[in-house]
Amino acid sequence: MVSARADAQPNRIRGGDSTDRQRKAAPARVGRPADSGDRAGRVVTKGGELRATGSSDSTICFVGLGTFGLPIALHCMNAGFEVVTLDTGHDRAGRKALADAGAGVLSPASPECEAMVLCLPDARAAQDVVERYRDRLPALIVDLSSHSPGAARRLHALCARAGSTYIDAPVSGSVQDAAQGGLTQFIGADRGADVLADAIMETVADKRFYFGRVGHGQGVKLVNQLVHISNVAVLGEGLRLARCLGLPASGVLEALAHASADSAMLRRFGDRLVGPDTSAAAFRTALAAKDMRNVAAEYRAAKGADLPIQSIVREALESAEAAGSARENFTRLIEFLPGTAARP
Question: Which segments constitute the 6-phosphogluconate dehydrogenase NADP-binding domain (predicted)?
C-alpha cells in the first residue's frame, strides 16, 4: 500500500455516467439508526445481512492506490460509486491503471465527497492525511489500513474533533482476494450503525466481522497477523526438520496438506519455502515487521511483558530488514530464525 504525502492534491475519478449524479444529504452517522432516511437509502434485510440501497450515488475519496487500494477502488467504481483520489505523488501507477480501465481523471481544488477511505501502510501515513485535511474531511472516514488499536483510537479522536466519524476496518487476504472482491474485514463498529459505511464495506470485502468498539477491528487484525506470520515461521522450521531427517521437502508438504498440520499458510506459502522465493513481494518484510512491533507495543502496554513466540518472529523479521530484505517477501524471516544460517 502506498503512503500519502502531506501536501497532496486531490484527483477526481469518475466512472460511467457519474457526472450526472446529484448530491444528496450527508450519510447517516455512527450512533444513528441505520434506516433513518439518509442519502444512502433505507436498509433492507437480504440473506440475513443489513444492506444499503441507493448508496452507489455517493462520492468516496480514496487515499492509497497500492496493492489493495487500487483493486478496492476499482470495485467501488464498478459498484457505481463516484471515486475521488488524493494525488500523493506515489500513486501514479494506480491512477494510470484506473485511467486504463476507462476512468476519467480531474483535479479540482478540493474534494467534495461523503466518505474518505484510507488504504495506507501505517498509522503515521493515516494520521498525516487526517491532520492535513482536517478542515475539509468528509462526514465519514473508513480506515482499511493496518496499524494498532491505540492508533485507531487516536485517529478516532482526531476525526471527532473535525466533526467526522472514524471506523477502523482493516482487511486481510491475498492480492488475488483483493482483485476478486474476496477480502476479509475486521470492523471496529456495529453493523448497521452507519449505512454508507456498510455499503462501502460490503463492496470492499465479502466476509465482514463487526466488533463494536473503535480499535477492535485493528485488534483482531493484529491477532490475525501474529498467527499468520508465526505460522509461516513454524512451517519453515518444520521444513528445516524434514531436511535434517533426509526427507524430500516437496513430498512432506504434499503429505502435510492432507494431515492435521494442514493450514492456509501451508497451502499458500509452502512451495515458496522449499527454494528461493522469487515471487513478487505481495507482503513485504518491512510491513510484517511493523505488524509485529505493533503487537509487541500493545501487549507490553497492557501486560508489561513480551509474547515469547512473537518476540522470536519479530527479531527474525527485523534481522531480515537489517540485512536488506525490507522490500522482499516476509517469508525471508525463516532465514533469520535463531540457529538458522541459511534456508531450511
Answer: 59-212
| Nearest-angstrom CA–CA distance, 221 and 82 | 28
pLDDT digits (tens, 9 = 90+) for 220-240: 999 999 999 999 999 999 999
Contact 85, 7 (CB under 8 A): no
For residue 234, give the CATH number of its domain. 1.10.1040.10
Question: Minimal CA–CA distance to 322: which of 336, 312, 342?
Answer: 336
For cell 530488514, name the residue: 321
**Radius of gyration (C-alpha) of the chain in whole angstroms:** 21
Domain containing 239 equals 220-335
Q: What pLDDT score does 248 carry?
A: 95
Report the C-alpha gap between 320 and 307 in whole angstroms: 20
Does the annotation count 221 as an active-site position?
Answer: yes
Instruction: Check if the beta carbon of residue 104 is closer than 8 Å to that of residue 128.
Output: no
Catalytic residue among 24, 46, 221, 290: 221
The answer to whether residues 53 and 202 belong to one domain is yes
